[in-house]
Amino acid sequence: MSLLGNLLWIVLGGGLILALEYFAVGLLMFCTFVGIPFGVQCMKLAWLSLLPFGKEVRSRQKASGCVSTVMNVLWIVTGGIVVSLTHVVFALLCALTIIGIPFAKQHMKLASLALAPFGRQAV
């Protein structure tokens, strides 16, 4: 079921476009030493936005506490809110039809991860 969901997500849910955007931004972040941790998170978001079905987001068992919090605050201030709101808008648009409800759920999962990705992982 997750294979079919992922294939439909790539074609109909905007998964390929989202993955390419996250991938491009991640590559730009890798150009500076300061941006490397943010680039890693963008790459994680790119892979998850390409194939979100069958995965869930959890807190890491060995989260780095204070460092994760500081990095999440920097992420939110520099664009995390905009990315998260984009996923929420797409979720609302997908939820207008019965067929789009599973896609809306995946967009909400991505929105929560896009808001604060540090200290969390997709399993």
Report on the structure:
This protein has one domain (2-122). It contains 5 helices and 2 strands. The protein has helices at 2-12, 15-29, 36-50, 66-94, 101-115; strands at residues 57-59, 120-122. The longest helix has 29 residues, at 66-94.
Sheet/helix structural class:
mainly alpha
Q: Can you count the helices? A: 5
Taken in chain order, the helices and strands follow as: HHHEHHE
Q: Helical proportion?
A: 55-70%
Q: What can be said about the biggest beta sheet?
A: 2 strands, antiparallel
Number of strands: 2
Radius of gyration: 14 Å
Number of domains: 1
Q: Which stretches are low in confidence, meaning pLDDT under 50 for 5 or more residues running?
A: none
What is the spatial order of strands in the main beta sheet? 1-2
C-alpha geometry? globular
What is the overall pLDDT average? 87
Separation, N- and C-terminal Cα atoms: 17 Å
Beta-strand proportion: under 5%
Q: Quick gist of this model?
A:
By secondary structure, this protein is mostly helical.
